[in-house]
Amino acid sequence: WECLFPLSQCDNEPLAQILDKPRLVVVEEPKDRGMRFRYQCEGRSAGSILGASSTDSNKTQPTIEVHTWFLFLRWEFNISETVGKYFLYFVSSCSFANLGIQCVKRKELDDSLQKRRNQNIDPFQSELGAQTGIEDMDMNSVRLCFQCELEWEDGRKDSLSPVVSKPIYDKKATTTSELKIYNLNKFKGSCKGKTEVYMLCDKHTKRPVPSQTSYVNQMF
Questions:
Q1: I want to staple 198 with a disulfide (CB 3.0 to 4.6 A). Which of 150, 183, 185, 203 is the partner?
Q2: Are 117 and 109 in contact (CB under 8 A)?
Q3: Which range of residues forms the domain containing residue 159?
Q4: What's the number of domains the chain is made of?
Q5: SS3 117
Q6: Are 125 and 117 contacting, i.e. CB atoms less than 8 angstroms apart?
Q7: Is 80 domain-assigned?
């Protein structure tokens, strides 16, 4: 017969410290742009949050995994009654489909934060708005927070450390949305510089706009 239990219960404490303890890992980040935040009155017609590697032909969703080591004991009953010890690396994944983002009006922030306090939703003990004022909150970007609780056969429960995703930016916000170029007066210029380029976009943003140039050898 065989036995399987978490490495944290292993008698070999130095070995348990060397190998990883159960942890939560984000293996598929959410797509950072292209998602529109919706107000509650607009309903749930904004689509779903896709994974960062999602394509038109292969849709992915934000995915997390639980990684942990187990001590695997297998007894082989024979004349000498030998016992073998093995270590099994266990991975369990979970993908989140049909997730949307519902934004809150700034005048309703106090009520929304109080509701979260009443529900004890504060995984990082940040006191929800106490450290940074409401006026300093960025309403156009969010991160997904994932929490996980493991329940063993003996009834014991382990709460894993919460993890957060990379930021997701509101598609319609001026400060965070992707700029669409409608008109560009020049597509190439001299390597000596001093070429003025005018770019007309669908909206204006105060943040720096990165640009990329490439060299083309016209001799060939």
A1: 185
A2: no
A3: 2-103+139-176
A4: 1
A5: helix
A6: no
A7: yes
What distance in Å separates the CA atoms of residue 190 and residue 192, rounded to the nearest whole number?
5
Q: What token pair was written down for 48?
A: 């779903």
Walking along the chain (220 residues) 10 residues at a time, the average pLDDT comes out as 44 49 88 82 73 90 82 44 48 82 82 80 67 70 86 81 89 69 82 82 70 69
Q: Can you give the pTM of this predicted structure?
A: 0.64
CA nearest 182: which of 166, 196, 161, 200?
Answer: 200
Q: Is residue 210 a part of any domain in this protein? A: no
The single-letter DSSP state of residue 185 is: S
Please report whether residue 89 resides in a domain.
Answer: yes
Tell me the two tokens of residue 118. 């009443």
Kindly report the CATH number assigned to the domain that includes residue 11: 2.60.40
Q: How far is the C-alpha of 73 from the C-alpha of 83, rounded, in Å? A: 7
- Name residue, tokens 């239990």: 5
